[in-house]
Amino acid sequence: MNEITAPDNINENDVFIFAKIGNVPYAFPALSILEIIKLVELEYPEKMPTYVAGILEYRGKIIQIIDLRTILNIEEKNYDTNTHILIIQGKDTVYGIIADSITDIKRIDTSLIVPPPHSIGSHFTKGMYLNNGTTSTVVNLNALEEWMSISDKGETNFNQKASRLLPRDIKSKELLHQRKLQLINKTKNVHYGGLTTNKDVYISFKIGSNTYCLEIVYVGGFYKYSETKIIKVPCTPGFIKGLISIKGDYITIIDLKKYFDNEESCITDKSAIIAIQSKDFNIGFIVDEISDAINIQPADLFKNKPKNKNTKTENKNEITEYVKDNKLYLVLNIEEILNNEKLYVG
After folding, report:
1. Is the dihedral of CA 105, 109, 112, 117 positive or negative?
2. pLDDT tens digits for 209-246?
3. What residues contact 104, with CB distance under 8 A and at least 6 apart?
4. CA angle, corner 29, sides to 27 and 30, nearest 5?
5. Considering the entire predicted model, what is its pTM?
6. I need a labelling partner for 257 at 20 to 30 A (CA). Which of 46, 82, 120, 315 fits?
7. Cα atoms in the Cβ-side hemisphere of radius 13 Å centred on 103
8. What are phi and psi of 217, to 5 degrees?
9. Extended strands (E) in 216-313
């Protein structure tokens, strides 16, 4: 893990969302991503460019959903209900990119992005990022958007492409249709406000029956609990589970369920550790399951104490409530948590 620095000194462009398209890992700058959604029912004009998987109504506008396989000469693969769409805020337009799976969301040292080998060089490739033996292609979204606006891309008929790739069973079609209606409903009164910032992007996760989230600027990385080895530390509060070593850095692991509710977390194969960026602490939170990235405008947060009876935290300033689509999110105030004297072990 790289040296942990204070959020105020962080370059917003070094947070990336990692996804797989086919079997190829790609990295997209989080600053350009408005939202990550699962595949929904798409519409199709009679003719459309070969790289377009379909069109979608999003925030009152029609946007194109792009399949990079066609552009990057990757073998086609059928979509399914677990396929994702990255909603991208470009310089001049909003569009979506099909991804088979989201594999990680983390901060990277951009100096480690190197030019691609000539053999795989692409106008849409900003560089290659090597991490733990895996090489990810960093996508140049500006170049991609420029190419889409000026290139002669050819056209294809709906039946020549979409019918081959979309789920065909009735159950999947109904699910995609319902997702589409829900997306249109939740975004119909939401207008584009220019580029999002990392301070508007939050990572959500489960702890018990509650859904929490925190600003992505504080996220240093994600780790599977099952792949870490926690070193116990004597004479520490019960919510401090111990230390783990990540690339030579020792990180103090906090059980958030124990911290907030005084109950031990139930560890499963989905349990994870979220490493937190801080100038004062190297800490990580145990959570039950990582969920999705969501966009939250500061004005939408409720600046009051939590009403959720399942949350027993003594310091109410550590949590702010946010409701989206009738779902309650408990937003962590990381600065308040880090300033809590409970974290200081004498």
Report:
1. positive
2. 899 998 877 887 778 888 888 888 888 888 989 888 87
3. 17, 18, 221, 222
4. 115
5. 0.59
6. 82
7. 16
8. -65, -20
9. 219-224, 240-246, 249-255, 272-276, 283-287, 289-295
